[in-house]
Design brief:
By secondary structure, the chain is an alpha+beta fold. The protein is 26% helix and 19% strand.
């Protein structure tokens, strides 16, 4: 997911490869699942109170079939539920399914048993037919869901999308509480896909009642109901009294103020008007050294990466040695320092905590002399001129200037081109348009596939909206990525991805810069908050002390 946002709304993902071919006993609701719980608190959670938060951007959509940005996803997790969810860390746990699914020996058939008595906000019980409808709705072209791409491996999905079939043959609601999904080939990412908001269940009658305006009248099964939404002003959520996890949520509601920039957000937090806030870079040194905040700052890795992408179809980046030279020329540790150490210098593409990551990958150390040597070998002893596109956000520009200074030292003369987010997003997806750009990638779902295959397989190159916006192509990398896609042995699959990552790093289409670390300040009254590696804060588990 191409995002630039606060941790409050950032979605990052990690992998929990799971599944077995034998039936499992029903699991207790996630609130009773030890893996799902935050660290033990000294106090007993109490119900009541409203959590106050703020963000710069309004929610784009509360329809889980449509919203595909960090702000939308953050709130979709509060209003809707899916079959599976994440525990305290990276493991998948059952949510509306009573247990993890039975998976056939060939890895293609998933059978879910639903929890009984789960209700939509309108009071109707959820059945397996609702999940069938929800997935088929995403696959319906008229819905224009960006999530359709994730479900095309379901048997019959393409025929349904092409209007050659009235339903998706691979989705069967066998009885009200049994859902079977058959894939056309094995895919170890499938459970991760179902944990995305695209896998959340919606009631057909409410979607049909509201049509395109369902987003503003969202009805799900989640811990909170949509109470009020004043466009570009505020969003109010209220506690769902019928939530299937007994006792949750603890909060009476959540109030989001919209249009509040990071500096104003911090001022409101310090004034006591907000309960959660990220810490602006200008305030971080002071705040982190102030004992008043010692126990009020939560830190954690966000499974994402900042990088410089070089267009392999545009001179001089068609030359591998030039790309390698640029990677050696950038001082990553300096960038980390500029970020007040709220990041870790990148040694590869996959971030820390990502299962399958190669901990022995060394990446490109800062070595200006090696960079000059490679430029000489590439026939550019005097360097070259290049344009680096950056988001017009001031932080991006500041970091871009640091990269500009590093490259100047090896003879590469950089012109920065600050560009509005949407303009930049459109431009980088078109071939031979942007020679190099400073960007960030956040996982859609937790699997090496979502970094390596989505961003570097040549089948992701397109004339518009290319995911592989380095326009990088290596037949051996393609072969390895295609091989890994349908492997069913997790460890063997990881080895293939590691080999692919090594080859990509050697080709250097990216300058891997750093992995961000999130720091969130909370009000003294907030309990149960921690930086989750996958989801935004799990609001149903937060509570407010008196």
């Amino acid at each position: 997911m191409r995002l630039n946002s606060l941790r409050f709304v950032v979605l990052t993902c990690v992998l929990a490869l799971a599944g077995c071919s034998r039936s499992q006993a029903p699991s207790p609701p996630p609130s009773e699942n030890r893996a799902a719980q935050p660290a033990p608190a000294a106090e007993t959670p109490r119900q009541g109170g409203t959590l106050r938060v703020a963000a710069m951007d309004d929610i784009r959509s509360l329809d889980p079939a449509i919203g595909y940005d960090a702000t939308s996803w953050s709130f979709e997790y509060m209003v809707f539920d899916g079959l599976v969810d994440y525990g305290r860390e990276t493991e998948l746990i059952p949510k509306l399914a009573e247990a993890m699914p039975e998976i056939s020996p060939d890895g293609k058939t998933y059978t879910f048993r639903l929890r009984k008595g789960v209700k939509f906000h309108n009071g109707r019980e959820v059945t397996s037919a609702d999940f069938k409808y929800s997935i088929e709705r995403i696959l319906t072209p008229a819905t224009t869901s960006p999530g359709a791409q994730f479900f095309t491996l379901i048997e019959g999905a393409r025929a349904f999308r092409d209007k050659k079939a009235k339903e998706v043959a691979g989705i069967e609601a066998e009885d009200p509480y049994t859902l079977t999904i058959r894939l056309s080939k094995p895919d170890l990412t499938f459970l991760q896909i179902l944990a995305m908001p695209f896998g959340f269940v919606v009631p057909k009658e409410e979607v049909e009642k509201w049509g395109k305006d369902f987003s503003h009248h969202a009805v799900g099964t989640g811990p909170f109901r949509l109470k009020d939404w004043k466009i570009k002003q505020s969003v109010s959520l209220a506690r769902n009294p019928d939530y299937f996890i007994q006792g949750q949520p603890y909060l009476d509601g959540i109030e989001l103020k919209v249009g509040v920039n990071d500096q104003l957000r911090w001022m409101q937090y310090e004034r006591g008007d907000l309960d959660l806030s990220d810490i602006p870079s200008s305030e971080y040194v002071r705040v982190s050294s102030d004992l008043k905040y010692k126990d009020l700052i939560d830190r954690g890795s966000t499974l994402s990466i900042f990088y410089i992408c070089m267009n392999c179809r545009m001179e001089p980046f068609t030359d591998r040695k030039v790309r390698q030279a640029v990677s050696y020329a950038v001082n990553r540790q300096r960038l980390v320092t500029l970020l007040n150490n709220r990041a870790e210098a990148a040694t590869g593409i996959l971030p820390p905590k990502m299962p399958g990551r190669n901990p022995n990958l060394k990446g490109y150390p800062y070595d200006p002399e090696k960079a000059r040597q490679l430029l000489r070998e590439a026939g550019m002893p005097n360097g070259f001129d290049m344009t680096l596109w950056v988001h017009s956000d001031l932080t991006y520009q500041k970091l871009g200037q640091a990269v500009q200074e590093d490259l100047q030292k090896v003879g590469v003369r950089v012109t920065l081109k600050p560009t509005a987010y949407n303009t930049l997003l459109d431009a980088i997806g078109r071939p031979k348009t942007v020679p190099a750009f400073y960007w960030r990638w956040v996982l859609d779902f937790p699997d090496p596939y979502d970094f390596l295959d989505v961003l570097f397989n040549s089948n992701q190159i397109a004339e518009v909206n290319a995911n592989n916006n380095a326009f990088y192509s290596n037949p051996e990398v393609d072969r390895l990525l295609d091989q890994a896609r349908s492997m069913t042995d997790p460890e063997a699959r990881f080895k293939v991805y590691r080999k692919a990552e090594e080859l990509i790093m050697a080709d250097a289409p990216w300058v891997c810069l750093y992995y961000p670390i999130s720091t969130i300040a909370r009000s003294p009254r907030v309990r149960g908050h921690y930086v989750h590696p996958v989801r935004p804060a799990i609001y149903e588990r937060l509570w407010l002390a008196e």
